[in-house]
Amino acid sequence: MPVVPLTDILSGAFKERYGVPAINVFNDLTLEGVLAAAVDRSSPLIVQTSVKTVRSVGGATFYALWKAMTAGIEVPVALHLDHCPDREVITECLGLGWNSVLFDASRLPVEENMRQTVEVVAEARAHGAHVEGEIESITGVEDGVGSDRAAAQQDLDVALEFLETTGVDVFAPAIGNAHGSYKRAPVLDADRVSDLVAAHPLPIALHGGSGLSDEQFRDLIARGCAKVNISTALKETFMKANLVFLETAAREQKWDPPSLFRAVRDDVMGLSGSLMTLFGSAGRGR
Question: Which residues bind Zn(2+) 1 (predicted)?
Answer without folding.
Answer: 83, 179, 207
